[in-house]
Amino acid sequence: MIKQKGILFVLSGPSGVGKGTVRKSLFEKDTNLKYSISMTTRAMRQGEEEGVDYFFRSKDEFETMIEEGRMLEYAQYVGNYYGTPKQYVEEMIELGHDVFLEIEVQGALQVKENYPQGVFIFLIPPSLEELKNRIIDRGTETEDLILNRLTEAKNEIEMMDKYDYVVVNDNIEEAVSRVQSIVVSEHCKRERVAKEYKAILEGENK
Amino acid sequence: MIKQKGILFVLSGPSGVGKGTVRKSLFEKDTNLKYSISMTTRAMRQGEEEGVDYFFRSKDEFETMIEEGRMLEYAQYVGNYYGTPKQYVEEMIELGHDVFLEIEVQGALQVKENYPQGVFIFLIPPSLEELKNRIIDRGTETEDLILNRLTEAKNEIEMMDKYDYVVVNDNIEEAVSRVQSIVVSEHCKRERVAKEYKAILEGENK
User: Which E.C. number(s) belong to this protein (chains A, B) (predicted)?
Assistant: First the structure.
């Protein structure tokens, strides 16, 4: 068979669109994907494991990694750093595993700058009305916050042009199946297959 | 939902690779694809229907269509013309149907010249050894013909670079499933979705 390197797939989209649900459902079906493990400076909680839930690092270590360009993306949240270390992703990809990263829009844009050969998938709601309903259904937001998040979502949707694929999340099963199709089809792209295949044929001709 | 135009998918590959089998199996599963109906100057046979098996035309009519640039591709075989009329494909695509065309390599390259916005899929054998076995298994060829066809296959495989996707036909079910993934994933490409989606959002904002 034709050996291929793995591919980094990045799933993003406006908050409230259902990225997490799609990711969970995808991982229940597809065991070939490796989930990209994040790095954080926050304290380890009970039940969490190093290298499983997060890579836990000190603030100094994290900042050194940022300076050395070893993060695909990072952000600060409530005084702690969270981010995606480059090394894990690159190692998995060299070994031929696909890596899957689910991340908010700003993070995805950082990944694209640092790893443009990734495949970027944008999850969208069927309509803004539907997105509003989903945010309201969470029941955790005040009316002002809902309006803020909708405005932010509209701005984020403008970022669509930076992505390779757009998947409508009208139905979880359908959305997951579309993402799975993108994974399969990316591996069939001629530029990923042709060189290796021709080398196999050359080998046979000897 | 987001309305999209249809897409022309062209499946090709060296002779003996199993294009016909993949196409038949695909059409048993996927009823959204329209099969592109060929045009011919050969006589209608018993049981055949105009516009179902072929569009039957006189030699004069066929040659007029060639002159007027109304064929996506054509070839002569045993004194008759065979080809793909542009109009049927364009009408289906305008109506939002995907059109599927299974064709040998020379024909596919003609289609690419006349309709570069199509999606071109190249079916390959897992190895030349396997292709040789498949040609021998048909049992209809002399040894010389088998060698000729293998040489031709090698030359045709060089044409791979003209294609968007390469699908290995190691197993019919797998190959069909890969083609189905390509169909789904092409419809998720950002450039096919973004403009229409933004128009929907603009509409909602009014």
Answer: 2.7.4.8
